[in-house]
Amino acid sequence: MIAPLRNLLNTLLIVLLITSSVSESFARVPSKKAKAAEPIDWRKHFDAGYAAMNRRDYVNAKKELLIAVAGAPREVAAQYYLGIAAAYGNDYQTAQQAMSRVVIMTPTGSEYNKNALQFFKNSQRQIGILQPYPVEADGKLIRWDSRIMPIRVHVTQGLQLPSEFSGDALTMDKFPSLQPYLSRSDFYKRLGQCQGYEPDWYGAALGGLQQWKWAMAEGVLKYQVVPTPQQADIIVFWCPAMVNLSGRTYFSTGVGSKVVVQLCSKMSDAFPKWIKPTLISNTAAHEFGHAWGLAAHSPNIKDLMSPERETIILHYSGGVGHMSAGVTANDCAVLRALYQIPPDVYLTR
Fold it and tell me: What is the reported pTM?
């Protein structure tokens, strides 16, 4: 281990130890009859791991802290010191995953959050350039329950919601009133085609979905495309345009609630026709990221989940600027971290 990183780890070890329990609210979890596992005394293993770290026995420290994290995955201190112990033991995969979980679980600017981000900044030689970012919505972590996967997705072929729900007219306050219609087949028969939509846009939107296929391969989440919207958990509609946006995602956490994505077919009349499939694909990928639970935006303009992906800018002199090439390592790290811990709220059918 290089000296600067060892000095950093020594510095990070003196961060204020906070081990008070994190409040968790598991909303509407599907009930399944299963034999309850023996609860893990996470505090006992945390104390043993912390003591081993003080003895510089990082092998046993990591072993104990892994057990502590298994027993209390939302305990920030356990995740944080697991990251430190793993780094001392040159297990940087475990270290970066633990520190990624710290970043998404802690408020921006808090002691643990700042130290975890400093860890990434000073560990680039070992783990590469990585900058995880918070993903909370209103202070809560939200994601799909793995027990109901695969998540069912339907991309409509140009269908536009009724005027009272289309584009900017659909607000989060009005979204619950749309929900009852989304499971009715007759509702979709009455919908018209979005102005400016072209058949190629359907494939482009599915291309955005496929930008997340790595998560399927890793087992982070599972999704499948279904033939009808009423079957789906996530439905993609189209609208001509929204103010300062190229797409938007809406969700609520009630049982049976569907996630709705709206993509703009026009985006901007300034865009040349040949570039629009790529714009739509990246916009769809960004909105699917929100639909998985990445509710907040990345501060890094290069990330797919940067807010700049929603307000794509065209540079006539050099092609399209501020358009991500796809899901980045940062986006991957935060999605992995989110699906490795219990959320505050589950999205479920």
Answer: 0.85
